[in-house]
Specification:
This protein has helices at residues 18-37, 43-55, 68-77, 131-141, and strands at 2-6, 12-16, 101-103, 122-124, 153-158, 168-175, 181-190, 197-204. With 209 residues, the protein is α+β, with helices and mostly antiparallel strands. The protein is globular.
């Protein structure tokens, strides 16, 4: 309905009723809210693609180095060598005493100190070590149980040539409980991508003597 009013010059003027005014106000408010919630064109798509890229397995360096887990598991297991779980990733079976392991001893009381090469590394035979020597050997690998295995990060992965005993090798960095970062090299061979296999080298960069 409309109200009929007279203007000063005598012309008739149609005025909207109160209900008509309220309807117009409600419509304007609705349009305003719709405009406020609309995103910029392409903003949602860009955000989604960024999230997808950041969580993509191809962006994860570990995806290219599944065998990293062998070294992580080994370092964790060597913290409690008495339970023997480390043998999943390191052989010290006397039946296979020729199995070698390369590491970097820190002092003269650790196995192989006097046989180190120019990089400070030595080839040792875990199955030949006495219990006391093996204890020192394990503590050297874990840096007195200070390495935090879960922080081990692959710096550079390198596939080993066909025909070699190892099928993977990589340089890494790992943090210690006192906040230091160690760098080193690991090699080994894997049975599958679940972390099973043997680590045959775990060396840390040695400071020049």
């Amino acid at each position: 309905m409309h109200l009929m009013l007279r203007s000063k010059d005598g012309d008739s003027v149609l005025m909207p009723t109160r209900s008509k005014v309220a309807a117009i106000v409600l419509m304007a408010a609705s349009l305003s809210l719709t405009g406020c919630t609309e995103t910029e064109p392409g903003s949602k798509a860009e955000s989604g693609s960024h999230d997808a890229a950041s969580s993509s397995p191809s962006a994860d360096l570990y995806a290219k180095a599944p065998w990293r887990r062998q070294v992580v598991h080994l370092l964790e297991a060597l913290r409690t060598p008495q339970d023997g779980t480390y043998r999943t990733w390191m052989s010290d079976d006397a039946t296979y005493w020729t199995e070698t392991f390369i590491y970097t001893p820190r002092s003269a009381n650790e196995p192989g100190w006097d046989k180190r090469d120019q990089q400070g590394e030595v080839v040792t035979y875990p199955a030949k070590l006495t219990p006391a020597e093996k204890d020192l050997f394990f503590k050297s690998l874990t840096r007195d149980n200070r390495t935090i295995a879960s922080t081990l990060t692959v710096v550079r992965a390198e596939q080993q040539p066909d025909g070699t005993r190892q099928d993977h090798g990589f340089t890494f960095k790992v943090r210690t409980s006192d906040g230091d970062w160690l760098t080193g090299t690991a090699t080994g061979h894997q049975r599958d991508e679940s972390g099973k296999g043997k680590v045959t080298r775990l060396t840390y960069d040695a400071k020049p003597s």
